[in-house]
Automatic annotation (TrEMBL):
Database matches in Gene3D superfamilies: Winged helix-like DNA-binding domain superfamily/Winged helix DNA-binding domain
Gene Ontology MF term list: DNA binding; DNA-binding transcription factor activity
Matching PROSITE patterns: HTH_MARR_2
SUPFAM superfamilies per record: Winged helix' DNA-binding domain (SSF46785)
Protein name, as recorded: Regulatory protein MarR
Source organism, top-level taxon: Bacteria
Residue ranges annotated for the HTH marR-type domain, each copy included: 23-158
Pfam families in alphabetical order: MarR_2
PANTHER family for the chain: TRANSCRIPTIONAL REGULATOR, MARR, TRANSCRIPTIONAL REPRESSOR OF EMRAB OPERON
Native source organism of the sequence: Thermobifida fusca TM51
Alphabetical UniProt keywords: DNA-binding, Transcription, Transcription regulation
Length: 164
């Protein structure tokens, strides 16, 4: 079975025989897969009237467990955005009724962001649809192959995900 990457690797080998283009065999496929996943995720989230960033914030709150609340700083670190960006995101999610701000009982000046029932329902439904789609992508792989692929990708990603 051949794919687009086979063609581009072949072309680079012809045009630049002085370079080892072997990394393209893996990383070009990862890049293409990432683009396909991004489009699919945007489509799934749009079906639930969510933007990808909204899903990210709501999912972080949902994963935090009951009562599904975190500080803006924790949300900022988890979603890798600046404090100004997080403030704007919380404002928009509050306006849409998906989260609400509460006073932080441990810090008089602080606030906590809590997932509303509507926010929980929306993120849960979007996650279920996303997982159905992603399961279909992996259907051709056995459980052992999925585990092996996850291990290999973890090995590549771990050093990149380490804090600076």
């Amino acid at each position: 079975m051949r794919d687009e990457v086979d063609g581009l690797v072949e072309a680079w080998r012809t045009e630049r025989p002085d370079l080892d283009v072997a990394p393209l065999q893996v990383l070009s496929r990862v890049s293409r897969l990432a683009r396909h996943l991004d489009r699919a995720r945007r489509s799934v989230f749009a079906a639930h009237d969510l933007e990808p960033w909204e899903f990210d914030v709501l999912a972080e709150l949902r994963r935090s467990g009951h009562p599904y609340e975190l500080s803006p700083g924790r949300l900022m670190r988890a979603t890798l955005v600046t404090s100004g960006t997080m403030t704007n995101r919380i404002d928009r999610l509050t306006e849409d009724g998906l989260v609400r701000r509460l006073p932080d009982p441990t810090d008089r000046r602080g606030v906590l962001v809590r997932l509303t029932d509507e926010g929980r329902e929306r993120v849960d439904a979007a996650l279920a649809d996303l997982l159905r789609y992603e399961e279909s992508l992996l259907a051709a792989l056995t459980t052992a192959e999925r585990d092996q692929l996850a291990t290999l990708l973890r090995t590549v990603l771990a050093p990149l995900d380490e804090p600076d």
